[in-house]
Structures are given as C-alpha cells and as structure tokens.
Predict the structure.
Amino acid sequence: DQQVKQNSPSLSVQEGRISILNCDYTNSMFDYFLWYKKYPAEGPTFLISISSIKDKNEDGRFTVFLNKSAKHLSLHIVPSQPGDSAVYFCAASAPGTASKLTFGTGTRLQVTL
Amino acid sequence: EPEVTQTPSHQVTQMGQEVILRCVPISNHLYFYWYRQILGQKVEFLVSFYNNEISEKSEIFDDQFSVERPDGSNFTLKIRSTKLEDSAMYFCASTRYRGYNEQFFGPGTRLTVL
C-alpha cells in the first residue's frame, strides 16, 4: 500500500540554503496534507499542513506547495538550519475516515555547516 | 505547552504475553489514535477512537488488539498475546477536532517481543 510516497530517502543541504522535500500521493480522495518532523526516539512533531482548496501555505521558514493535478506536494525550508536535521514525513487524510493519517516513508534531511 | 505522554518508554515482553501501552492525550482533545512504526518502515495507522468507541481500524488491528479509555485521562492499547512481529514503536496521538486539524503525537513506546 503505497498511497503516499517519498522517493528520496535522504537529502543533504548546506546551512542557509533551501531544502526541498517532495511527496507524491495516489489516492485522489486525500484532501488534507501534513508534514511532520521526527527526531530519533521521539514522536512525530507537526510542522505545517495544507488543505486541498489551497495550493500554498506558509509558516515562517516553512512553505508547503500542493499540486493537485500532479498529486504532488513539497516542503520548502528556507533558510535551512542545522537544527532542521531530522526525518520528515508527509502524511495525508481523506474525508470520512475519522481523520486517520496515511504516512510516507520519510526523508532524512541533514543540514551541514 | 500541553503534550501527549506515553508510558512506558520501553517495554520488553515474551512472545504470547499480554501488554498494555498507556497514553495520556491532551486534556481537551476528543479524538484519539494509535499508530505503530516497525523499524525502518513507515508510520502505520492502527485505530481511531471517539466517544468511547472505535471509529475506524486498520487490517493490522485484529482481535489481538483492543483499546480502552478507562477514565477521563488515560487511553490504552492492549495486545492480548504478543507475537515477534508486534515489535515496533507505538505512538499515541490526539486531536480536538476531526477534519482539517493536526494530530499531536506522544513520544512513543518501544515494544520488544522476545
């Protein structure tokens, strides 16, 4: 069951540059998308979300873009900081599903000095 | 800032034994969830719970699993007879509203079945 896919298992970015994390989905019923950040031995921490009626949502250094026709979303982090180094999960939910989240496999981001 | 808490942080058990994983969701939240993450794999939905009953469950959540909200604060996941493949991180999550709202996750319980 690969309804949400993150094709890049890892990404390395220099401090101060932009990090772009990508996510693709196959289920056209998904209408709400979230990004979570996870450190080892901790639970996922919510970062930012977007509903399907929008194509962009911004919160500080984090911006999520949604392309519904391509079933693709991306998370931009600008500027990247060493503390951003973590695993990033894309997640999605569909209406009428008690808001269960379907997660991608995650992308490990390393921000280097 | 309110947070979801989980106990224990690590549970080791023998195959066939029962385990109970405990969670205290954020106090004014109404919807509760369990997820699990097998090492190296993605986070998977197990069950959602609202108004003292299961709203939805995945194929993973078979008869060996049960959930309960025994009082106004705790939310538990019981595995009746553990199997080796139940070894995973188990995350509890909660949210106040259904729909377009983020779920808040606890730190997880690492379950090791020997």
